[in-house]
Design goal:
Helix content: 55-70%
Number of helices: 37
């Protein structure tokens, strides 16, 4: 957006004005490039043509929109320039009476010259803990920000208060210190806070004075460090002072006063404490009457003196110290009245009888003769001698005044040091907040050394301020992720270098002061010679005794007269010696300290001039050098702290309340750096709006499509990109929108144009309506006039004698006719009255008759009710008997459970006996191994015999060789057969493995399906049990509510009848529940039987397979062992060993399996025990409940509640009994099955062991026979034995491989079954997900079809949904739940209407996929329903209404989620127990 485009009609600008600096004007016609005149309309109605250069148009600054006028922060203005700031301050100060305004980090405080009630303790507590921008601008907000940052960041803070004299610096600093004292109360006995505040009256008394601009002007700079401990409570303070105006002690301008302490003392001269000081009235002392003003309007010096003395005491400065201070002050006043006479020839003298000189010397204990002499003489030390030279009167007066200034300066420093000592409290300082009360930039008609030092200090502070503002601006941009570009700001380092650098103004001044003959004129000439080339230093055209410096605020012309004298601060050594030997120690210590400091401190002279020695030692340290060093120390302190700025503004020079002088304010704004802050902000993005503020302000500029977006941040971006084409004119931050200067005003212009167009349209229609209305009124009036005129004409034409007679006759006829009609009406009314009376009397008689009949019926009702009560008591007794029977049966069940536990223990004992038998078989096998060892020993003996039979074997070798050949041939045949058999075994093994896997998968599927069915049925049972429990709770609550309704007996009878009907219905449903539970138990038992049969079949198949595998292996080994004679015997022995190993492995597997089954049985038994205990607890609870209910039989209400509770408890008890019976049956079947399996396994093991033992015995006998034959044939078969042993090893390896394959097969089967179960679970989840997605797709398709078929005027169409906004949630709940009555028209037509409306709202929130919104709505619905139930627990109609609606809403939600509702399940029994806590 170009700046020229903003200069359009109706916009306003600022033009320069001589009186008000700037004045406002309105643009009459749009300005275009090339125009040489901007036509304006001033506020007084005159037209003004503002000249503009067509080539380079310099247009006047634009005025901010009215919405921005009066902003708390000046940087929030769209147009940041001088007139905007000036006007905003004026509006706030004059119209709104607000004295504080923010300008970025600066607090601008305008002096109201009036006491305002905005500094009380209530205001302090209101600002405590608040952020800086949350409340209106205030000095307390700045103090709170400093205190908060100190506590949060653990960093020292400083508050810099500056401004002109009379702008309110001292008061602002005082209020800041008071805020810290109130907020950080320590509660200790030292009262450090009060001491810190008490230091202000003392420093104001000795350092403040009346000037032409301010009645209480601080004539020194003060930096107060307030120390805090780790709990951020004040533990002390310390003050540093800068550049006390000592010249005020001896000189005051017109309408000004000396320091307040002198006038306070003079006002108390009549008091006894001040008699010895010999004080006079203030107009009798030269130092107090020089300005002509000795009193200030509205100030009582005597009361101020009392306050000063009180604060002295509060700080611990006793009366002895006060008397010494007052002595020194009184001596200064008397010294000013010492008369110095002119003796001629450049000489002067002091009369020895001068009374003031005598009083001065008496108070200070000094020598009157020595003082009178050395005031008028001077000692000059030469090389060979010392010369005493008289001085003229002018120099003697200067020496007297210099002594007075020096004494007051030392006294001021001494009091400050004693205050600092009093403010120090034992304790370690953790942090501090410094308050700097320092003079602002000053420019007067005559500016001297004091103004030079003040402006130099302000240059240093302004440099520090510029750097800090620039840093904060950069941090703001980085925090909001805005691209940072370097901003050019004014750097006043050249001015500072001009003043303090080498060969600068201060350096040349100190150099000139070192020369005894140096003068102001010679120093000025040096400035012209050295600094003439500097652009910031100028020589005035009309004066040779001044120089000009271009400061950051303005050009200032300084008069060089007095610079050297004030910088030297000359005091003769002779006068110093007299003060040093004073009999008053308080005064002597001043100059003793000075002596020590002079001797220890070296001369600050550059090495270029080391030989030059001043005659006076005091010149070694100049005032400028001291001020420069103290200022450097101050800047170092400020740079280590976080600064906060307060700029005090003086609105007018006449000290009038709430009067605003624009010229004076502008001058101070330029001097204090506010406009520089504005200029830095204006160069980047000065206007910053949050997204919410922008949306609420400029929503009128948005289109309908943009306004419908839910994301307000994106909406703001779209609107800005459409309205402002240049993206460089704004930037989007994280939380704010940054605008260039003028862009907010452009948006305001667009907004005003839109509003203006709307206003024109409204005005058009209103004016048209008013004109039409006026026209219609005139038309109606004309018609009425025409009607009357025409009527009169017709009357005149028709009036005659005949018509008059006819008229009179008509009146007579009417009279008689009206009389007749009235008589007819009277008779009719009389007849109607008689009829009404007859009917009324008949009605009253019938009413009396009915009442008599009702009394007779009441007796009959009482008869029947008492009969019903008697029957009911009988039924309750019968129920008690049933309950006793039930408890007896439960005890019997417990006994049966104990018997079953005993049987389980017997089974465990049998298991242990089986384990013992197994250990015995193992011992037998170990005996067989010992026998085998014996056989090996026999084999060794046979080998010994073989040695003897070698000779016999040689004869049969040939025959054996032939037999070996035959055996080799048989061996080859057997190997071929073995290979064929192994192949067949492998194929059969693979086939069996495949069959086994298929059967396992099928069995796992069946088991999974059965478990799912059982789990679903169990969940249904649990839900039914829960509903019954909730019914019990609900009936208990109804019992309490029914007890409270004892008073209304008529309603109770009707309610009792309804409840009896409902209870009979519930009793009817109990057999149905029992039948359904029996059916479910039968189904579960059938499923258990099927699973057991399937598992037994699978186990039988596994046993067959293992038998087949083992049998096949044994047959193959037998085939391999079918060798003739001896070889067959050897192979059978090795086969026996392998069989024994297999038996050992089988026994280990059986042991582990038995152990696992034992553990599983124990866990199941424990679970059953826990269930039995739980059921026992439930039974005990039920018995207690029955006892409680049996005791309650006092009235009808309690009887009905107990009847309902017992009827509801019976199904639950029956369910629990049936559950116990079912669990008992399962336990018995499980134990029988386990015992059967254990018996079968033990029989199998015993049979196998017996068979193996028999085979072992037969083989052993056979082996002994073979051994005898082997003794003869050992040599011949040795080679054969080795070959057979190798074959045996090969067969063993094959057996091991087969056993490993079997174990792997088992592992794979178990792994495959587990994976199969996981896959089936995943498939079930996928099926549910597919169903849910199909439902969503159907709903989406239906919604899209509805959208396509809906009318184009509807922006949104939700099928079966109710759209609502998040903020309307509370109203929706209030109208639909809390405020809804069951007897309404809509509710009576559709009873479940609230449930349907809430369900449609839930569907809409789910459709939007807004989890937070859905959760909030469901929480609000549940809370509101609970609230209605608890607040209307006595209203049965309200309870039944909301229970039915809650049930309907729950069913709708289940249908929507794809689950079965309670009405669709087979076990549906009672729907009134829907829990409101779902």
């Amino acid at each position: 957006m170009a700046l020229l485009e903003l200069y359009t009609e109706y916009n306003r600008v600022w033009i320069p004005d001589a009186e008000h600096v700037w004045k406002s004007a309105e643009i009459m016609r749009d300005f275009h490039f090339g125009n040489n005149v901007l036509e304006l309309l001033l506020e007084d109605g005159t037209e003004y043509c503002y000249p503009v250069d067509p080539s380079k148009p310099q247009l006047p600054p634009l005025r901010n929109p009215d919405i921005l006028v009066g902003e708390n922060d000046l940087t929030a203005l769209s147009y940041l320039h001088e007139p905007a700031v000036l006007h905003n301050l004026k509006v706030r100060f004059v119209e709104s009476r607000i004295i504080y305004t923010y300008c970025g980090i600066i607090l601008v405080a305008v002096n109201p010259y009036k006491q305002l009630h905005i500094y009380g303790d209530a205001i302090i507590h209101a600002y405590s803990g608040q952020n800086m921008g949350d409340m209106d601008p205030h000095i307390f907000a700045v103090a709170e920000e400093a205190y908060k940052q100190m506590a949060r960041n653990h960093k020292n803070q400083s508050i810099i208060v500056s401004g002109e004299s009379g702008a309110g610096k001292t008061v602002s600093a005082r209020y800041a210190m008071r805020y810290f004292a109130v907020v950080s109360k320590s509660g200790s006995k030292t009262r450090v806070e009060d001491k810190v505040l008490a230091s202000n009256p003392i420093t104001e008394a000795i350092g403040n004075a009346k000037t032409t601009r301010n009645d209480n002007s601080s004539r020194f700079g003060k930096y107060t460090e307030i120390s805090f401990d780790r709990r951020y409570q004040i533990i002390g303070a310390n003050m540093r002072t800068y550049l006390l105006e000592k010249s005020r002690v001896v000189f005051q301008a017109d309408n000004e006063r000396n320091y307040h302490i002198f006038y306070q003392m003079c006002s108390c001269a009549h008091l006894q404490e001040f008699k010895n000081l010999r004080l006079l009235s203030a107009d009798k002392f030269r130092y107090t009457c020089m300005g002509g003003e000795i009193a200030i309007e509205g100030v009582d010096d005597e009361k101020d003196m009392e306050e000063t003395r009180r604060t002295f005491l509060l700080l611990g400065l006793k009366e002895d110290f006060q008397s010494e201070v007052f002595k020194v002050l009184a001596a200064i006043l008397h010294l000013g009245n010492v008369e110095i006479r002119n003796s001629g020839d450049g000489k002067s003298s002091v009369p020895p009888s001068d009374p003031h000189l005598a009083v001065f010397c008496e108070l200070l204990g000094a020598s009157a003769d020595g003082l009178g002499r050395w005031l008028c003489h001077r000692r000059i030390v030469l090389v060979a001698e010392t010369v005493v030279k008289p001085v003229p009167k002018e120099r003697a007066v200067n020496a007297r005044d210099a002594l007075a200034k020096q004494i007051y300066a030392h006294l001021f420093d001494c009091i400050i040091n004693r205050i600092n000592t009093a403010l120090q409290v034992p304790g370690k300082q953790h942090a501090f907040i410094g308050v700097l009360d320092i003079y602002g930039f000053e420019t007067f008609d005559i500016n001297s050394f004091e103004q030079f030092c003040i402006n130099y200090a302000n240059e240093k502070l302004q440099q520090q301020f510029n750097l800090h503002v620039f840093k904060l601006e950069q941090e703001e941009y980085m925090k909001e992720d805005i691209p940072w570009t370097l901003i050019d700001f004014y750097d006043n380092q050249p001015v500072i270098d001009l003043i303090e650098a080498k060969m600068g103004i201060l350096d040349l001044l100190d150099e000139e002061c070192l020369f005894p003959q140096g003068t102001d004129q010679s120093w000025l000439q040096k400035l012209f010679n050295y600094l003439d080339a500097n652009p910031l230093f100028e020589k005035p055209r009309l004066s040779n005794e001044a120089f000009v410096i271009q400061h950051f605020a303005d050009k200032v012309e300084y008069q060089c007269r007095g610079f050297l004298e004030k910088n030297r601060d000359t005091l003769y050594e002779e006068l110093v010696d007299i003060m040093r030997v004073s009999k008053l120690p308080f005064l002597a210590n001043f100059f003793q300290e000075e002596k020590s400091t002079v001797t220890t401190k070296g001369v600050k002279v550059r090495p270029a001039r080391p030989a030059v020695k001043p005659a006076n030692k005091q010149l070694r340290t100049s005032v400028g050098d001291k001020f420069c060093s103290s200022l450097s120390l101050l800047m170092e302190t400020l740079n280590t702290t976080t600064p906060h700025y307060v700029r005090c503004i003086k609105p007018n020079d006449e000290k009038l309340p709430f009067e605003y002088d624009s010229r004076r304010v502008v001058q101070q704004l330029r001097a204090c750096g506010v406009l520089e802050t504005i200029r830095i902000s204006a160069q980047s993005y000065p206007s910053r709006w949050t997204y919410i503020e922008f949306y609420s302000r400029y929503s009128i500029l948005m289109s309908h499509q943009e306004g419908d977006l839910s994301d307000k941040k994106q909406t703001c971006k779209n609107v800005l990109q459409r309205l402002i084409q240049d993206p460089n004119q704004y930037k989007f931050g994280r939380t704010k929108i940054f605008f260039r200067a003028g862009q907010v005003a452009y948006l305001e212009k667009l907004r005003l144009d839109r509003l203006r167009g709307a206003c024109v349209t409204i005005q058009k229609h209103v004016r048209g309506w008013s004109q039409r209305r006026k026209y219609l009124r005139m038309r109606d009036a004309a018609i009425i006039l025409q009607l009357y005129i025409r009527g009169k004409r017709t009357i005149r034409k028709t009036v005659s004698a005949a018509t008059l007679k006819q008229g009179w006759a008509a009146m007579v006829v009417q009279r008689y006719w009206k009389g007749y009609r009235m008589r007819q009406i009277f008779q009719l009314v009389r007849l109607a009255s008689i009829t009404i009376q007859a009917f009324t009397r008949g009605w009253m008689a019938r009413k009396r008759y009915k009442k008599m009949v009702e009394e007779q019926k009441a007796l009959i009702l009482q008869k029947y009710a008492r009969a019903w009560l008697a029957r009911r008591r009988f039924q309750t007794m019968r129920r008690l008997v049933l309950n006793v029977q039930l408890s007896f049966r439960v005890q019997k069940l417990r006994k049966k459970i104990e018997e079953q536990n005993k049987e389980n223990r017997g089974l465990m004992e049998r298991l242990t006996s089986l384990a013992n038998s197994h250990s015995q078989t193992v011992d037998r096998l170990q005996g067989l191994e010992a026998q085998l060892e014996k056989s090996t020993n026999q084999k060794a003996s046979l080998e010994a015999r073989e040695k003897k039979a070698k000779e016999d074997a040689s004869l049969t070798t040939a025959q054996l060789q032939r037999e070996i050949d035959a055996l080799n041939f048989e061996k080859q045949n057997l190997e071929n057969k073995f290979e064929a058999s192994t192949k067949e075994a492998k194929e059969s093994f693979d086939q069996i493995k495949r069959n086994l896997l298929d059967e396992k998968e099928y069995e796992a599927r069946l088991r999974k399906i059965a478990e799912n069915n059982i789990e679903i049925q169990r969940q249904d049972h649990e839900k039914l049990v829960e509903t019954l429990k909730e019914e019990i709770k609900r009936l208990k609550e109804e019992r309490v509510s029914l007890q409270r309704k004892m008073e209304d007996e008529g309603k109770v009878n009707s309610d009792l009848q309804e409840q009896v009907i409902q209870l009979t219905k519930h009793v009817k449903t109990i057999p149905e529940l029992r039948r359904e539970l029996n059916n479910l138990q039968n189904q579960r038992n059938n499923m258990d039987r099927k699973m057991k049969q399937q598992s037994e079949q699978a186990r039988a198949k596994m046993n067959d397979i293992t038998r087949q595998l083992l049998g096949g292996v044994v047959e193959e080994e037998v085939l391999l062992g079918l060798t003739p004679n001896d070889s067959e015997k050897i192979y059978e022995v090795e086969d026996l060993l392998a069989a024994i190993d297999g038996l050992q492995k089988a026994t280990r597997i059986l042991e582990s399996h038995q152990r696992e089954q034992k553990e599983s049985y124990e866990t199941q038994v424990e679970g059953l025990k826990l269930k039995v205990d739980h059921l026992q607890n439930e039974n005990s609870k039920l018995q207690n409940l029955f006892q409680e209910k049996s005791n309650v039989n006092e009235n009808i209400r309690q009887e009905v509640s107990r009847l309902s509770s017992e009827n509801s408890v019976l199904p639950q008890l029956k369910l629990q009994v049936s559950e116990l019976q079912r669990q008992k049956q399962e336990l018995e079947a499980h134990i029988l099955e386990q015992s059967r399996e254990l018996a079968e396994k033990t029989e199998e093991i015993t049979n196998v062991l017996q068979r193996k033992i028999k085979e072992e015995s037969s083989r052993r006998s056979h082996f002994e026979e073979k051994a005898e034959e082997l003794e003869e044939l050992k040599r011949e078969l040795q080679g054969r034995v080795e070959e057979l042993e190798e074959e045996n090893d090969h067969s063993k390896r094959q057996l091991l491989m087969e056993s490993e394959a079997k174990s792997k097969l088992r592992q794979e089967t178990s792994h495959l079954t587990a994976e199969n179960m996981d896959f089936e679970e995943q498939l079930d989840q996928k099926d549910r997900l597919i169903k849910k997605l199909q439902n969503q797709i159907k709903s989406l398709e239906t919604s899209q079809k509805a959208k396509q078929t809906s009318a184009p005027a509807m922006p949104k169409d939700y099928l079966g949904m109710l759209e609502f906004k998040r903020e309307d949630e509370s109203r929706l709940i209030q109208n639909i739940i809390l405020d809804l009555k069951p007897k309404g028209v809509v509710v009576s037509v559709i009873p479940a209407m609230p449930a349907y409306i809430l369900f449609m709202c839930v569907r809409h929130a789910d459709y939007l996929n807004d989890e937070v919104k859905l959760k909030s709505l469901m929480t609000a619905i549940i809370g509101a329903v609970k609230k209605v139930i608890t607040s209307h627990h006595k209203d049965f109609e309200m309870l039944s209404f909301w229970l039915s609606n809650t049930y309907q809403l729950l069913n709708c939600l289940k249908q929507y989620s794809g689950e079965e509702t309670d009405s669709q399940r087979p076990g549906h029994s009672n729907l009134l127990s829907v829990s409101l806590g779902h």
